[in-house]
Design a protein that fits this description.
Blueprint: H1 3-40, H2 45-51, E1 68-70, E2 78-82, E3 87-91, E4 95-98, H3 126-133
Antiparallel strand pairs: 1-4, 2-3
Amino acid sequence: LSLNEARNIILALTKPMAEIIQVIDNNKKSAESVKKEIALAQGDISNFEKKLRFNGFDIERQHLDYPMTVCAHTDCKEFVYVGFTQVTNTVYPVICHTHCTIKGLPTESTNDARLATCHAFAFNTGLAYKKFIG
């Protein structure tokens, strides 16, 4: 395993790890909320039993058979609320290039200058480069 390959693996795992940490944090907050409800429900056990169902959160990833480039600009992404507690999740509905195969670019990359070589982009001006790459 070369140093560059190790770097690419670490970069590819950054976003999934952050999502997993967010799910764990949301589960922890929900569990704390249930603990508080237990403490407050001193006498009314029947009402409390109805609200006691804690399901937690789960993360679902959809594996693609091919890489694609999506736009992460603020004008091109959406925030959706999921689950019972309406946790915010970022969705990138604008697909710039399906089957994008930029050599050496790890999946789940953002703000990588190598994205400028993708055929979906034509960076004729510095403004376009700044908007999409940063």
